Amino acid sequence: MSELHDWLSAPFAPEHRFLWRALLMCALLGASASLLGCVLVVRRLSLLGDALAHSLLPGVGLAWLMFGTSLGALFIGGLAAGLLTALGSGVLSRLTRVKEDASFAGLFLTLFALGVALVSRVGTPVDLLHVLFGNILGITGADLWLAAGVSTLTVSAFALFYRAILIECFDPSYHRACGGRGALTHLGLLALIVLNLVAALHALGGVLALGLFMLPAVTAYLWCDRWGTMLAFSVVYCVLGGALGLLLSVPTALASGPCMVGVLGIGFLLSAVLSPRHGLLGRLLRPHHHHNEHGDEEGVMPGHRH
Amino acid sequence: MSRDALALDDVTVCYRRTPAVHHLSATLRCGTLTALMGPNGAGKSTLLRAILGWQPLTTGSITLGGVPARRALARISYLPQRSAVDWDFPITVREVVAMGRYQSRGLFARFTAADHDAVADALTEMDLAWLQDRQIAQLSGGQQQRTFLARAVASGADVFLLDEPFVGLDPTSTADLVQRLNTWAAQGRLVVAVVHDVALARAHFQEALLVARSLVAAGPVAATLADANLARAYGAAWPLARPQADQALALPDLGGVLRTQARSAPRPTAQPGTSAVRPAERRP
Description:
The complex is a heterodimer.
Chain A: H1 2-9, H2 17-42, H3 46-67, H4 71-95, H5 100-122, H6 125-133, H7 141-160, H8 162-170, H9 172-177, H10 182-199, H11 201-223, H12 227-252, H13 256-274, H14 280-285
Chain B: E1 5-15, E2 18-29, E3 33-37, H1 44-51, E4 57-64, E5 67-68, E6 76-79, H2 93-98, H3 102-105, H4 113-125, H5 141-154, E7 159-162, H6 171-186, E8 190-194, H7 198-204, E9 207-212, E10 214-220, H8 221-224, H9 227-234, H10 254-260
Parallel strand pairs in B: 3-8, 3-9, 6-7, 7-8
Antiparallel strand pairs in B: 1-2, 1-4, 4-5, 9-10
Helix pairs in contact in B: 4-5, 5-6
């Protein structure tokens, strides 16, 4: 019994103050990253996040080479590299034959390779590992302040531009008809994604941080039929799931960042199977489509996408 | 309701530096159901985009009731093609219709009681009130079409631009939609719909605008959609029109015409006996 008690209370011991920092970090980043993930999921841009996450590396490496490990320098370096990828691929796809997804792939792979080369030149293999996957138990107060700022900015942007983001995702042409600036909204969202990735760099590394974006969003997509519900679901799921992963990582002695993302991923897989309307079992158990049982006067649905 | 007109005066629109529509002048009067017709790549979509102000004019002007259309955008509502909509998007019928109010209410202001009333009225007018909390993928094709019509109604616009609204609708839904559009027109609204079905346009539309990069003909459907004009617009794609041009009294068998050119024209929705499926249209 006392063994179980020790195991359970281990995370709350005073020497584990770093864990509380990590939990706060998880809540801050989870709240904002999962919102952005929802946008990426419904706009079918999930791979864009991936590309941005990888492309941060050369900026970070270069900043490190020139200014050392100052947080501000890393932040600006990562931001510059991310925006370069986002804008560069836009320019490439407009001016050449290459389509946008392919130009993203071309740019982020180039930048990622350069970044890994740079970081391996400057630091030790352990440093490289931290840049790639972060170290959420080693974050500083400055990291937390940065995350708090970015998270506040992101959540306020979603509150303020709720309608603009909703129409831009659902019906971009109608957004223009309402006098909205589609390109500006898109660019703003890209900038927020880069900001969040950079803020998560120390804690999770660029690539792993993407788990906080995508996994809650895609899980929410399996459960929710309204935009507002999807946003709320993904935030709550991200914060709770991330915290659970973090707490589990201490007694099991697993790496904390991957453990957080892993728990979110397991929840996603379970949802993909179990979600009653959009999951695997739901589809298998329901031979015909649900709309036929509501007495539609028009009956068939040509052009319906699944 | 107004009896204004949407006036296109010497409109030239370039798409990626090549002119897509040349020096086109036409007057579309409110209170009419107008078919916008022409072969693929004729500039129909470009013209709609120009009216909405999404495409700059190289020459000419577009005015609505004497006011530049750009400054009357609140009166103009655009309905996207059904294939352009992500039906899996987590959004309900009511939320889509509520978007109609964003145009006048703006993207930030709170909804007032008037906004909620307008949304409720639009839902009722389109028989969607009982479906309002349904996610949009759970609707039939006709109901999905009506959801976007309701959004346009809720916006308070009186000029409606519909991009191929009949694509993929079965005969029942087509008849229903035609009837609703005619009701709108009778209320003094201007309804412009991109249509490929000549028989449908001849039977149910009052006016037509036939374009093939420049204006071929405009005005009442009977004169505008005469075989000679259709042959000028569609060229080789209107094969049966030419031999029959001499037989002034014999109306071409439209079912047959449309069956033989299944790639360029939609199924004749007025004739349930013909093939019910047609390949998805490829945009130029």
